């Protein structure tokens, strides 16, 4: 499978990570796609599995307000 660099750049630029992993990189759709809600520092975030391959999962975390969380919040969510 040849990688379409222009499409890959476009998907990255538009934050379309699910399409990037599944359509361009050939990963599988996740077995569970329902988002999970979590709260940290009085803010609400959702995370969901967007792709998986050989037991490795890709998760996407989004804030309800659309902002990227600060570094300490990203670390806490990761843990």
The unreliable regions are none
Rg for CA atoms: 14 Å
The arrangement of helices and strands along the chain is HHEEEH
Mean of residue pLDDT values: 89
Taken as a percent bin, the fraction of beta residues is 25-35%
Q: What is the helix content?
A: 25-40%
C-alpha end-to-end distance? 35 Å
Number of helices: 3
Strand order in the sheet with the most strands: 1-2-3
Description:
This is ATP-binding protein. GO terms for molecular function: ATP binding. Keywords: ATP-binding, Nucleotide-binding. The protein is α+β, with helices and mostly antiparallel strands. The chain has one domain (5-78). It contains three helices and three strands. The protein has helices spanning 5-13, 17-24, 71-78, and strands at 36-40, 43-53, 56-63. The chain has a three-stranded antiparallel beta sheet with strand order 1-2-3. Helix 1 packs antiparallel against helix 2 (17-24). The longest helix has 9 residues, at 5-13. It is globular, with a radius of gyration of 14 Å. The relative contact order is 0.16.
Jot down its keywords:
nucleotide-binding, 32% helix, ATP binding, ATP-binding protein, ATP-binding, 3 helices, globular, 79 residues, alpha+beta, 3 strands, three-stranded antiparallel beta sheet
Architecture blueprint of SSEs:
Layout: H1 5-13, H2 17-24, E1 36-40, E2 43-53, E3 56-63, H3 71-78
Antiparallel strand pairs: 1-2, 2-3
Helix pairs in contact: 1-2
